[in-house]
Amino acid sequence: MIGILIRWSILTVAVLAAAYLVEGIHADDFFSALVTAAVLGILNALLHPVLIILTLPITVLSMGLFLVVINALLLMMASGVVGSFHVTGFGAALLGSLVISIVGWLLTFFVSDKGRVEHIELRQRRGRWE
Q: Within the chain, what is the greatest distance between any pair of CA atoms?
């Protein structure tokens, strides 16, 4: 349960970062970013696998870059559901999906599957770092 809450808060921070960095994305307040993160999580759980299967040939041909387009479409769907979160166009959604993906990846890099914050401890043995 704690893992879901941590991932939800990470996605909320990523949505806020996208709203701050991308000019065509606007979140009215923190609560709208929180609701948008929840809607994005639900859309990613339900529609993302189906869209990946339906667009598998073009995803393979583009070496996975089409996944950014799928994420942009899901971000535009989330802006249609959440009234206080606005995406002005597809270009803004594309940049926003990139920002959300990068910020989300950077933040979840330190969180394990069980929701625990992980750290790497490096030790030097015989002149080598392990």
A: 59
Find out whether 74 and 45 touch, Cβ atoms under 8 Å. no
Residue 86, SS3 per DSSP: strand
| Domain range list for the chain | 2-115
Distance of alpha carbon 82 from the chain centroid: 16
- Rounded Cα distance between 109 and 64, Å, is 20
pTM higher than 0.70: yes
pLDDT digit string, tens, across residues 31-60: 999 999 999 999 988 998 999 999 999 999
Token digits of residue 6: 């941590």
Separation CA 16–CA 35 (nearest Å):
11
Q: Calculate the dihedral angle through the C-alpha atoms of 13, 14, 19, 21, rounding to the nearest 10 degrees.
A: 110
- Residues in CB range of 55: below 8 A, 6 or more apart: 66, 70
Neighbours of 44 (CB within 10 A): 16
- Residues 39, 62: Cα–Cα separation, whole Å: 27
CA 124 to chain CA centroid, nearest Å:
36
